[in-house]
Each structure stands twice: as structure tokens, then as C-alpha cells.
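Bug #77: duplicate submission created two jobs. Keeping one. Sequence:
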Amino acid sequence: MPTSAPAALADVTASDSTLRRFLHGLPGVDAVGLEARAASLGTRSIKTTAKAYAIDLAISMVDLTTLEGADTPGKVRALGAKAVLPDPTDRTAPTTAAVCVYPDMVAVAKEAVAGSGVLVASVATAFPAGRAALDVKLADVRDAVAAGADEIDMVIDRGAFLAGHYMKVYDEIVAVKEASGAARLKVIFETGELSTYDNIRRASWLAMLAGADFIKTSTGKVAVNATPANTLLMLEAVRDFRAQTGVQVGVKPAGGIRTTKDAVKFLVLVNETAGEDWLDNHWFRFGASSLLNDLLMQRQKLATGRYSGPDYVTVD
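Kept job's structure:
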């Protein structure tokens, strides 16, 4: 993936004024229309074979996450074991896409999932607030990569973005992308703090211009996290970005997605908005912790006809 704007849009990032002109020239978002379409797609009903496929696909898209001050090596090892073997009673259940931890837990997570194909993602850049000097943020990223992180989830400087300092945010993403090396970069907007759908659209294009491999809704640490509407808007952005540049970028809704019904709604959004090319864990992820348990319980119900309940899955 590029570390700067694709050639088709290179002139957009030539200066702060050209970047501002481009971002503010993007079409305004029809909030009512966006929310109505998201709600309409959320009513689609998926049954039997299609539901079983959707559940397994959703499991394979989960970034199983623990981002707490009380995280311990033991908890991270248990999380890694669950990512590798989500349902010990049924080895046909797919592994999750990744485990997501703080930088100081990357080495523990890496050991826990070794040889499984499960990736290790690490939040960085002074997560979740992003309030630190750039050299501190880059050191955070380099530490995570040195410990073995396959993916970096960075937070943008929302204060700079909301103040209109778009080139500062762009330059930070470019610098983090470079520091990430071979690790894929997910750029977190914290959509609940961006106030408007227009800002979410601008942040999406800004991050993609700077070389993001994924755009991500939220940290999960604020009141409003992933919603069908903000995820739909980001899916439209990645679709339109690929149409204009040929570069495909992933999407990761995170925070507040807890049930199988929720996950299926988001998969419908992906299919109907971006298309089948994004229905793969290389291009779409769920940032979640409790979601996996509900997916597993629904999977067991489809297989046995009985709802096992939460006592039959591990508590994270």
C-alpha cells in the first residue's frame, strides 16, 4: 500500500490549501438519507444456510480485543487461545482474524497464537486519546512492531482534525505508516467525537490519501462507537476511493457490536455498499470482545437445534 496519496490524487496533498479544498469539496452527506438506507438494509432477513455462512464469516472477521488497564499476561494468553480455538467443543469453527492488545502485550499475544494464522494487532499512538508528541507516538508504533505486531491501530489527532489542521493529521498518518513497516495500518477516527457525517467522510478520504490500509470507526472508549450509518458512510468512501484510484482499503467498525444480529446487519451493509470484494477478513473486521460469544452460541444453536446459553462459552 502507498505511504502517500495515489498518483491519481497526488496533487490533492501538495499543500494544506489544496488538501482543504479537496476535503471540503467532497459531496455533503444527506444525513436523513444515510440513516434511512442503513436502517432499511438492517431489516434484511438471512436464514438457514446463508445464516450459517454469515456466522462463520463474522467469526473469521473478529479482532478479539482486550484493551484494559487491568490486562495481564494470563488474560492475553487466554484471549489468544480463544482466538485460535473459539469453540473447544467444535474444531470446525473458524479462527478469528486477530487479537488486539496494547503494545506491551504484543509479545505475549504473538506467542499465544504462534503457528495458527491468527494475527496480532496493537493499538498505538497514545491510544485512545492520541494526545502525545509525534516522536512519542512513533516510538509507541516501533515498539509494537519490534515485538511482532502484524497490524497497527492508530488514532488520529481529533483536536487537530476538528481545528481544520488537515495536513498535520495527514503527515502524522504518513509518518506512522512508515514506522509501521510491513505491518498493516488501521486508522481510527473516533467517529463519536467528529460530530458530523461530513467530518467522517472527510476523515475517511484523508486517511486513505495518507496510505491507510484500513479505516476504523472507533476506539470503543467513548459513548458513541460503530453504528450502521457511520459504517455505511465509510464503506461508500472506500468504494469510491477504489473507483478513483484503484487502491482498495479495508473498513473496521469497532465498539458496541455485541450480537449475531448486529454482525449480520453489518455484513449486509458491506455486501450491498462496497460489494463482495470486501466480504473477506483481509478487508473487513469487527473490533469486538463480547460479539464472539454470541456468534458461537448462535452457531451451536444452528448445529444442534438447542440454545446453549452463556455458561457454555468462555467469559473474556
